[in-house]
Amino acid sequence: MHILEGEGVTKYFGGLAAVSDVSFYVDEGEVVGLIGPNGAGKTTLFNLISAALEPKTGEIRFKGKKINGLKPYQICRLGIARTFQTVKIFGNLPVIENVRIGSLFGPFKGLSTADATREANELLEFMGLSDVAYAPARDLTLAHQKRLEVARALATKPTLLMLDELMAGLNQTELIEAMDLVKKIREKGTTIVMIEHVMKAIMNICDRIIVLHHGKKIADGTPQEVANSKTVIEVYLGEASDAGN
Ligand SMILES: Nc1ncnc2c1ncn2[C@@H]1O[C@H](COP(=O)(O)OP(=O)(O)OP(=O)(O)O)[C@@H](O)[C@H]1O
Ligand SMILES: [Mg+2]
């Protein structure tokens, strides 16, 4: 079943078509990579799905129902959570509070604060952040801040998680840890769409890859199909087309 679908989705910034007539789907349980050169429209597409922006034309459906036109908090409560390319944590708050906010804000109304604390502790454990639970979030390393954003997103109990460049700026050890985390999240049954420039991660984790270029979808296929696509190699992968970079 398609958990997420887009049909003819278009968004302009002034005269620039940042996302241009893009149709796509994501199946339940899939991990889909969204790749493309800088400025291709990847983050804009996330912003359209999560309702940070509204498309000019086209329709976005989640579990068969149109969602464009809803507010971001409604999208979140339907079961779509996201992280941000530039982390947007609550830096002054302790790590655990960042996650508790996700739990308390999520789809289950009337969750007790004790339950929210229990859930937050479980998620911090899952994400390997228990040791820093009471540190101010701004004191964490970038890798840990990114994990915290994932924990906060998971606290809203999404069925679809969208990760915007989770791996960017991480060192090799952190990268491998982040890849393992994404795999663990998928094993819990969460569908994932991940924007990523780190091809090693994309090739290793994704079932399918969608490629954007200048706002248009130029490829959609298995990692192997995409890595072998002449168009994709020309506009994006280039020398990295052995997918090892
Ligand atoms: N709020 C905005 N106002 C005006 N232009 C924007 C805005 N957001 C994005 N753009 C432009 O839209 C295009 C797509 O940007 P977007 O951030 O979606 O690209 P991206 O594929 O995520 O790139 P990157 O890999 O660098 O993150 C770019 O040309 C960008 O400058
Ligand atoms: Mg981006």
Produce a short descriptive summary.
Helices cover 37% and strands 25% of the residues. By secondary structure, the chain is an alpha/beta fold. It has a single domain (30-41, 69-242), classed as 3-Layer(aba) Sandwich (Rossmann fold).
Would you kindly provide a written description of the structure presented here, covering whatever features stand out?
The protein has helices at 42-49, 72-78, 95-105, 113-126, 142-155, 172-187, 199-205, 223-228, 230-237; strands at 2-13, 16-27, 31-35, 57-62, 65-66, 80-82, 160-164, 191-195, 208-213, 216-221. The chain has 245 residues and is α/β, with parallel strands linked by helices. It has one domain: Rossmann fold (3-Layer(aba) Sandwich). It has a six-stranded mixed beta sheet with strand order 6-7-8-3-9-10, sandwiched between helices. A four-stranded antiparallel beta sheet has the order 2-1-4-5, covered by helices on one side. Strand 1 and strand 2 form a beta hairpin. Helix 3 (95-105) crosses helix 4 and helix 3 (95-105) packs parallel to helix 5. The protein is globular, with a radius of gyration of 18 Å. The two termini are 33 Å apart. Mean pLDDT is 94; it is low at 241-245. Magnesium ion is lined by residues 42-43, 85.
The small-molecule ligands in this entry are:
adenosine-5'-triphosphate, magnesium ion
Number of strands: 10
For the sheet with most strands, the description reads: 6 strands, mixed
Q: Which fold name is given in CATH as the topology?
A: Rossmann fold
Q: Helicity range of the residues?
A: 25-40%
> What order do the strands of the largest sheet run in, or round the barrel if closed?
6-7-8-3-9-10
What is the overall pLDDT average? Answer: 94
Number of distinct helices: 9
- Based on CA atoms alone, the radius of gyration comes out at 18 Å
